[in-house]
Structure formats: structure tokens, C-alpha cells
Design a protein that fits this description.
single chain, about 80 residues, mainly alpha, 4 helices
Length: about 80
């Protein structure tokens, strides 16, 4: 089985490709979504920002963070 690169390296590669080739079409970026990436993103998120379209506050989301991330991943992979 092919060894996966660390998330940061993979995303850096995607960012570099997007910057260098504006017309490139990325496919299957869903494979980069995983719980580790979502948790890293959560740590960087401004928790005092306004509510999103779902009207859920950061505090409400964080109260059930693991389950919310798992549900998000399941829903996105079904699309």
C-alpha cells in the first residue's frame, strides 16, 4: 500500500500547484479530508467569529467536536 504524505506536505503541494498553474483543475480533493485535517483546521479557526449559515456557534460545535467531524466526513464522502 502506498504511504500517505503528511497532511501539511500534501496541502502545500496543492497550494503550490494552484499558484503556479491557475488553469489546472484539481480532482478528488475529498481524499485529503480526514479527521486530522479537520482537527488541525479547528485549532486555527477563530472561535469568536460570527455564526455560519447553519447558525451553530463555535462553542456548540466544539461541545460535540468528534461526532460533528465524523458526520461531516461521512456526508461529504456520500456526495
Amino acid at each position: 500500500m502506498k504511504e500517505r504524505k503528511p497532511v501539511q506536505t500534501t496541502l502545500l503541494g496543492i497550494a503550490n500547484k494552484a499558484k503556479s498553474d491557475k488553469r489546472y483543475r484539481f480532482r478528488n480533493l475529498y481524499r485529503e479530508l480526514n479527521e486530522e485535517l479537520l482537527l488541525d483546521s479547528w485549532r486555527l479557526l477563530r472561535k469568536d467569529a460570527a455564526l455560519g449559515v447553519d447558525r451553530i456557534s463555535a462553542a456548540e460545535y466544539e461541545a460535540n467536536l468528534a461526532e460533528n467531524d465524523t458526520c461531516f466526513l461521512c456526508n461529504e464522502r456520500r456526495r
